[in-house]
Amino acid sequence: QLLFVESGGGLVQPGGSLRLSCAASGFTLDYYSIGWFRQAPGKEREGVSCIGRSGVSTNYADSVKGRFTISRDNAKNTVYLQMNSLKPEDTAIYYCARCTITTMRDLSGGSWGQGTQVTVSS
């Protein structure tokens, strides 16, 4: 079982920025494509972005294209999500997990970390 530790969430005003971090616990991230997923209250979890093993290939949900940037530092065993121009509809708990680049499907097997709460509100 692969365990992830998400951090960096918080309360931010519309138009603000946050950077989320996803650290691996007990394994090496660079063997896997890693993605960010989010779940808003009353909604299903959705894929936000996914990055390939080398960091060259990326994919984004249409709702975040041009505003979010995913990156990884394999030396630090960490994947990041830079979120700019945040909107109230970005409010959700954000999780990371293994993913498929083309479809941004999670490969979590139903096992998720604690996630990190992002709240966008004035």
Judged by helices, strands and strand pairing, the structural class is: mainly beta
Calculate the terminal CA-CA distance, rounded to whole Å.
39 Å
Low-confidence stretches: none
Portion in helices: under 10%
Characterize the main sheet. 6 strands, mixed
Could you spell the SSE succession in H and E letters?
Answer: EEEEEEEEEE
Shape: globular
Helix count, DSSP H or I runs of 4 or more residues: 0
**Strand residue content:** over 45%
Task: List the SSEs and their pairings.
Elements: E1 3-7, E2 10-12, E3 18-25, E4 34-39, E5 46-51, E6 58-60, E7 68-73, E8 78-83, E9 92-98, E10 116-120
Parallel strand pairs: 2-10
Antiparallel strand pairs: 1-3, 3-8, 4-5, 4-9, 5-6, 7-8, 9-10
Walk me through the structure.
The chain is mainly β. The protein has strands at residues 3-7, 10-12, 18-25, 34-39, 46-51, 58-60, 68-73, 78-83, 92-98, 116-120. The chain has a six-stranded mixed beta sheet, with no helix packed on it. The chain has a four-stranded antiparallel beta sheet with strand order 1-3-8-7, with no helix packed on it. It is globular, with a radius of gyration of 13 Å. 32% of the residues are buried. The model has no long low-confidence stretch (mean pLDDT 95).
In a nutshell, what does this entry contain?
With 122 residues, the protein is mostly beta strands. 0% of the residues lie in helices and 45% in strands.
Please give a handful of descriptors for the protein shown.
single chain; 122 residues; mainly beta; four-stranded antiparallel sheet; 10 strands; 0% helix
